[in-house]
Amino acid sequence: MLTLAADIEVLARFGRALADPIRCRILLALRQAPAYPADLADALDISRTRLSNHLACLRDCGLVVTVPDGRRTRYELVDERLGHALDDLRNAVVAVEADRTCPDADEKDCC
After folding, report:
1. Cα 37 off chain centre by
2. Confidence of residue 2 (pLDDT cuts 50, 70, 90)
3. In terms of Cα–Cα distance, which of 15, 23, 16, 2 is closest to 93?
4. Sign of the CA dihedral 103, 109, 110, 111?
5. Average pLDDT, the chain
6. Whole-angstrom Cα distance, residue 99 to residue 44?
7. Domains of the chain by start residue, with CATH
8. Which GO terms are recorded in the biological process aspect for this UniProt protein (predicted)?
9. Measuring CA to CA, which residue among 19, 34, 24, 16 is closest to residue 76?
10. What integer is the mean pLDDT of 11-31?
11. Helix/strand/coil percentages in the chain, nearest 5
């Protein structure tokens, strides 16, 4: 069983990963199916370099893993429960505050 401090660290890591819209898009894409970086970059319409940086962040946060596949490397969510958590979180936010928007991160009052 995790301690409260460990629980907080895990949730903070998850929050940092979700704080960026591109990382959210990557996680939602990988929730649908594992993917290769080139395919993800094309599907998300971002450069491969930018995608690589975000995938590294998600790997460092422990949310995605690499799976060797011949000469290529595929990315996938670290655990299928993460996909369920993303669905639950998305549904909870939509159900509670569907008409709200978050202020810009630069604003002092942003959560």
Report:
1. 15
2. low
3. 15
4. negative
5. 87
6. 26
7. 11-84 (1.10.10.10)
8. response to cadmium ion; response to lead ion
9. 34
10. 93
11. 60, 10, 30
